[in-house]
Amino acid sequence: MKILVLNAGSSSQKCSLFQIADSIPEEPPDPLWEAEIDWSTAGAAGSELRVKNSAGAKTTESIQVTKHTDAVGKMLEHLWSGRTRVLANPRDVDVVGHRVVHGGPKLVKPTRVTPEVKKAILELSELAPLHNRVQVECMDAVEKQFGSVPQVAVFDTAFHAHMPIEATVYPGPHEWLEQGIRRYGFHGINHQYCAERAWQILKSEAPALRLISCHLGNGCSLAAIRGGRSVDTTMGFTPLDGIMMGTRPGSLDPGILTYLMRKHGSTADELDEILNRKSGLAGISGLSNDMREILTAKNRGDERAGLAFDIFIHRLRSGIGSMLAALGGLDALIFTAGIGENSPDVRFAACGAFEFLGMRLNQERNLLSPRDEDIATSDSRVRVLIIHAQEDWAIARDCWRLVNNSV
């Protein structure tokens, strides 16, 4: 079965093609084909599109498009044309899976895409403005390119759907809960995958492990996982909550927003722009949402870049502390996604606050940023894992299970 996965994030559009035969392999296989559009590189020349296949063929080009669906369409054409092609034609794709950020209270498991499901996802766009609408546009692009191929939506909120009620309900009016205003949590596809991968790496049974998964990319969230289930997380009703991110602030005093509205006349749209696109690392540094650029500027003495890094670490440590309290102890701390996997500085600074737990980093291993390995010292009482984010593979597995009626 050939499964195409579309993963629309807040700063990029990724796409992968997997092949699964009669059963799901234990180790994640390499995709047959991968493509990515980096929206952050958009400029006069357009956005950069990078494509490669498992045979080693690669291509890079700039695409200048005004509609997201057109950009995705150009990306998908490389599946069956050009030097990276791996298919004879679009009909070779058996099923298409989509990462959908917000599923709300009802969409809590992998679901076949129908007009009603697309409508429900669009209605949640107000809660995930950087994601949900784009993900429906991807579904439309697939329909245009592939016709009636089955499509499956896999939801980032689903893993957190059964958190304890005390971690879910906000302490506002009880009517909020009846209106669907509650903590949903996000990045659940990867948090769940990381928990499963941790069991494999540590050769331990799920019920025996208390895990904190740190998904650190342009969007950041932490999850407290006990016995394979999410018991708390930092993101909430929307992906704005929690720790500091690339362009989002994380948790704020809500009085700041009412102050800006009353004192400066800020509108809802202006606040939305500030909170989703002009805050976080980019807002504090004035430079970039990219941690690599922040660290480069910090190391040459840029004070605002240094402040952005320090705030990020302070918020990250605070988030880990809150997840630790929810678990009552910790067996392994997981770092995943772009920053989590690739920044030794962030891992070193974050772990330094938890030496009182007996957490010890192997500094040589940390500097190497190995994939899917334990980077703690042998005498560390808490394991520290770097796990490669495999959202696309996790989505492909869910598609296979749904089509084969095993979910």
CATH superfamily of the largest domain: ATPase, nucleotide binding domain
Q: What's the β-strand tally?
A: 14
What is the CATH fold-level name of the largest domain?
Nucleotidyltransferase, domain 5
**Cα separation of the termini:** 17 Å
CATH level-two architecture of the largest domain? 2-Layer Sandwich
Strand content: 15-25%
Q: Spell the H/E element sequence.
A: EEEEEHEEHHEHHHEEEHHHHHEHHHEEH
CATH class categorisation of the largest domain: Alpha Beta
Question: Compute the gyration radius: what is it?
Answer: 21 Å
Strand order of the largest sheet: 5-4-3-2-1-6-8-7
Task: Provide an overview of this structure.
- The protein has 407 residues and is α/β, with parallel strands linked by helices.
- The chain has two domains: 2-155, ATPase, nucleotide binding domain (Nucleotidyltransferase, domain 5, 2-Layer Sandwich); 203-386, Nucleotidyltransferase, domain 5 (2-Layer Sandwich).
- The protein is built from 15 helices and 14 strands.
- The chain has an eight-stranded mixed beta sheet, with helices on both faces. Strands 11-10-9-12-14-13 form a six-stranded mixed beta sheet, with helices on both faces.
- The radius of gyration is 21 Å and the shape is globular.
- The protein starts with a strand and ends with a helix.
- The model has no long low-confidence stretch (mean pLDDT 91).
